[in-house]
Amino acid sequence: MFVDEIKIYARAGHGGKGCVAFHREAFVPKGGPSGGNGGRGGSVILQADHDLNNLIAQYYQPRLVAAEGEHGLGKGMDGHAGKDLIVKVPCGTLVWQLAGSAGILPATTKPGKNFEEEEEKPRLTTSASKRPLIRSASGALAQEIDLSKESVVGESASADKGELIADLTQHGQQFVLCQGGRGGLGNRNFATAARQTPRFAQPGEPGGEGDFLLELRIIAEVGLIGYPNAGKSTLLTAISKARPKVAPYPFTTLHPQIGIVEYGDFHRLTVCDVPGVIEGAHQNVGLGHAFLRHIERCKILVLLLDMAGTDNRAPWDDYKQLLKELELYDPTLLEKPRLVVANKMDEAVAETNLKQFKKKIKKVALLPISAAFDQGVEKFLKMIREAVGEAS
């Protein structure tokens, strides 16, 4: 099963309570306060991993809850911090905070100015300046995201997805989804010359929580686009070791397929075969948005046309409709370099259709191939390598 979009609930661990205790031992009848601090709650951290290719793990475990911090103890013993929950996701995962969900980060616990006057109910103040953190593969802090500004990839908000808060593209990159709550301070921290026996301590800070949407957009260098039954899976099989299902009927491919193209000098290219485009795909007709988003990261696009007109479609109409669907979905897709490939040239009618195509669609370079019989495949591999190199 291929899962590229899933809603999850995440909650960081609560901080442990501070302890109210006093030092007691023989010959020390009036020892001072010795309450330990509570431990920090564990955080929920997403980590990009290039060994994963979909979000199926989160499909079976949509609730991510980190461990809570332990309470402080007497004799000045602090509680253990809760263990962070590190969740691995595929490279290319976008994280959306769903509208109406709770905040990502908890309130920051600080003693207020009147804290000493309120021994029974310590005051907690909230700091709104803290934001989720993204860490690089080396573990160093890469950047701090301000949710009030434009997001990391420009899609700051969506009516149905909420707000985009992270885009994990590099192997090992980490994002703190929910920050663990800070542990409360024990009563030893509030002893003063005027009050040497404080009988209160801070409670633990609650951990951050919220509802999120994880969306995978596959990172590939070449995207194969075409109508159903145009031969995309056949071409992917011919140029790589990927073995997608191939059958003579539309929508054989139901989810994106990734193939690695290897050249003689050990150079590699990643090729993504997406399900067939149909009219209205930009409005989520058919498989629609479920696959169009996977070509957004591609460096070049390959428009594969069925020049034989197997399903009684004219190749020139297919070409125009493909460009229209791409433009309506995202106009920036037309700015990407693209290669137009005429497939199934082994059919008798293909030559006639190719001549008509050149008359109707001028100034468009076509590469004729037959993926099923490896005709023109070597030239195709050379062209996509050159195109990717120029686009890099």
Question: First CA to last CA: what distance?
Answer: 32 Å
Per the CATH scheme, the topology name of the largest domain is Spo0b-associated Gtp-binding Protein, Chain: A
Within CATH, the superfamily of the largest domain carries the name GTP1/OBG domain
The CATH level-2 architecture of the largest domain is identified as: Distorted Sandwich
What strand order characterises the main sheet? 3-1-11-5-9-8
According to DSSP, the number of beta strands is: 17
How large, in whole angstroms, is the Cα Rg? 29 Å
Range of helix content = 10-25%
Q: What percentage of the residues does DSSP assign to strands (E)?
A: 15-25%
What's the CATH C level of the largest domain? Answer: Mainly Beta
Mean pLDDT: 81
Whole-number total of structural domains: 2
**Total count of helical runs of at least 4 residues:** 6
Broad structural category: alpha/beta
Shape: rod-shaped
* Poorly predicted regions: 105-131, 136-154
The ordered string of helix (H) and strand (E) elements is: EEHEEEEEEEEEEHEEHEHEHEH
Q: Characterize the largest beta sheet: strand count, sense, and whether it forms a barrel.
A: 6 strands, mixed
Write up what this structure looks like.
- This protein has 392 residues and is α/β, with parallel strands linked by helices.
- It folds into 2 domains: 1-217, Spo0b-associated Gtp-binding Protein, Chain: A (Distorted Sandwich); 222-391, Rossmann fold.
- The protein is 15% helix and 23% strand.
- The protein is built from 6 helices and 17 strands.
- The strands form 3 sheets. The protein has a 6-stranded mixed β-sheet with strand order 3-1-11-5-9-8, with no helix packed on it.
- The longest helix has 15 residues, at 315-329.
